[in-house]
Design a protein that fits this description.
The protein is an alpha/beta fold and 441 residues long. The chain has ten helices and 20 strands. Strands 1, 2, 3, 4, 5, 6, 7, 8 and 11 form a nine-stranded mixed sheet that branches. It has a four-stranded antiparallel sheet with strand order 17-14-12-20, with no helix packed on it. Helix 2 crosses helix 3, helix 4 runs parallel beside helix 5 and helix 8 runs parallel beside helix 10. The termini are far apart. Bound molecules: 2-acetamido-2-deoxy-beta-D-glucopyranose (NAG) (2 copies). One 2-acetamido-2-deoxy-beta-D-glucopyranose (NAG) binds next to loops.
């Protein structure tokens, strides 16, 4: 018996450690110069309610914000039992000097709130930094970091081999479709295949939207976001990556925040000479409504979890595509080698709604725009089919309706959920410029 137990534990020790699946959200620290402890705590509570496991703190080299912000962030995370780890941004303000990476990791890596891979090694990511890949054997030796960079400007095969295969896994920033298409998992499959022979993990990106108009940073394009959020979570449930990273929690400049809009942190629009502040008053809170469901399904190997409470969500752009001059925004961007198209080709003038339901039997969708009602139907049902639990979705065109948007989901005459609020649909154009961001309620 004793002999058997020794054999059993010896062979167990040889098995690779299966890391738990985790879902992170990308937090741009440079966007938060005014954040106080209470603000960090508010955002952490919202992330915890959404079942997010940790914030990925994107930090730019030489940014004076880092000192105070990181102390507050870790204090808040410790107060609330939350986790965080660093993503060194090698593009925002140039490459990170190696010694500064080492000293930051040695300062925070042992913090109880620093997210550790398998409970031991400080988890670390990057935004790009291909030219500094050779720094990482030394950084890992000095810090015991578990290193999952985003080097997705080169192919997965190249990224796996960089600096003698220094990456312990890879992250990709490729979360948006090219042109008038649906996002596919082809880029994710390329990463999974390149990493499989090495038995290294993949971190898959999920994002709800993309629009940026920041002349000061030479950025002015959109990618198709219609239908993207739920589609990507279905792809996550199916592809079962080792980790998921939500892009992003608070990147206001690229309109893909799923965290709250912090009015005092919108200075970047003036700093980057944006023709309009396309985030003020544009909530994305609705993109968190189903996160506990999506995350639980991913962690349950794609099985549909029990639905705690039926719910609804909706999103729409606040103006018809041709109501205002485009602001010079293109659909796609030549900067990424893409064919640019008029932006109105990539967006639909529709209210997109979704409902988390035990079944759609007896369910009615009503969309009111400025008091004018339309009946919606579900063009997409859960993978197991109509009548089964999961997320149902559809859309109705704005048509000529203008005004506040209210979506009501009812069953046999009883209201299950109503979503409303946020900015209504209008043809008034601030500074004669189209706002291609979307309201998500
Ligand atoms: C995207 O996928 C949805 C669901 O399968 C489908 O209804 C829609 O037509 C697709 N859109 C495009 C642009 O391919
Ligand atoms: C309005 O847009 C123009 C050009 O896009 C810009 O030069 C100007 O600063 C903007 N004005 C405001 C008030 O944002």
């Amino acid at each position: 018996m004793l002999f058997f137990a020794i054999i059993a534990s010896a062979s167990l020790a040889l098995l690779p450690v299966q890391a738990a699946k985790e879902v992170f959200a990308h937090m741009i620290v440079g966007n938060l110069p005014e954040f106080e402890l209470a603000d960090w705590e508010d955002d952490i509570r919202l992330a915890q309610a959404a079942k997010i496991d940790a914030f990925v703190l994107n930090i730019a080299s030489q940014d004076p914000i880092n000192g105070r912000s990181l102390d507050l962030a870790f204090q808040a995370a410790n107060n609330l039992g939350f986790k965080m780890f660093f993503s060194f941004d090698y593009l925002a303000q140039g490459p990170w000097p190696k010694d500064q990476v080492i000293s930051l990791l040695n300062k925070f890596g042992n913090n109880p709130a620093y997210f550790k891979h398998d409970g031991v090694r400080p988890f670390v990511s990057t935004f790009e930094g291909l030219g500094s890949a050779a720094d990482w054997p030394d950084i890992k030796a000095a810090t015991n970091a578990f290193f999952i960079p985003d080097w997705s400007s080169v192919s997965a095969q190249e990224a796996v081999r960089l600096a003698g295969g220094v990456a312990d896994g890879l992250f990709s920033f490729n979360a948006w479709p090219n042109g008038d298409t649906n996002m596919t998992t082809d880029p994710d499959r390329a990463f999974l295949e390149a990493l499989r022979p090495e038995d290294k993990p993949y971190m898959m990106p999920v994002s709800p939207w993309f629009f940026t108009n920041l002349p000061g940073f030479d950025k002015n394009w959109l990618w198709r976001g219609d239908g993207l959020w739920d589609l990507r979570w279905r792809q996550v449930a199916d592809a079962q990556p080792d980790f998921v990273q939500i892009l992003t929690w608070n990147d206001y400049g690229e309109s893909h925040y799923v965290g709250p809009v912090r009015e005092k942190e919108l200075g970047l629009f003036a700093a980057a000479h944006a023709p309009i502040n396309y985030v003020r008053g544009i909530t994305h809170d609705g993109w968190r409504t189903f996160l506990p469901f999506y995350i639980e399904q991913y962690k349950a190997d794609g099985r549909v979890p029990r639905i705690q409470a039926e719910a609804a969500a909706a999103y729409y752009r606040p103006a018809p595509a041709l109501a205002c001059p485009s602001g010079g925004t293109t659909g796609n961007t030549a900067a990424f080698g893409q064919t640019e198209v008029p932006p109105e080709q990539l967006v639909e003038d529709s209210v997109f709604y979704a409902a988390l339901l035990n079944t759609d039997a007896g369910v009615t969708v009503t969309v009111s725009i400025g008091g004018r009602q339309q009946t919606g139907h579900f063009s997409q049902v859960p993978t197991a089919g109509a009548g089964t639990p999961g997320v149902y979705q559809g859309s109705v065109p704005f048509g000529t309706s203008r005004g506040d948007v209210v979506v009501t989901i009812s069953r046999d005459g009883q209201t299950i959920a109503t979503v409303e609020g946020g900015k209504g649909i209008s043809t008034e154009c601030e500074n004669n410029t189209q706002n291609w961001n979307a309201v998500a309620v």
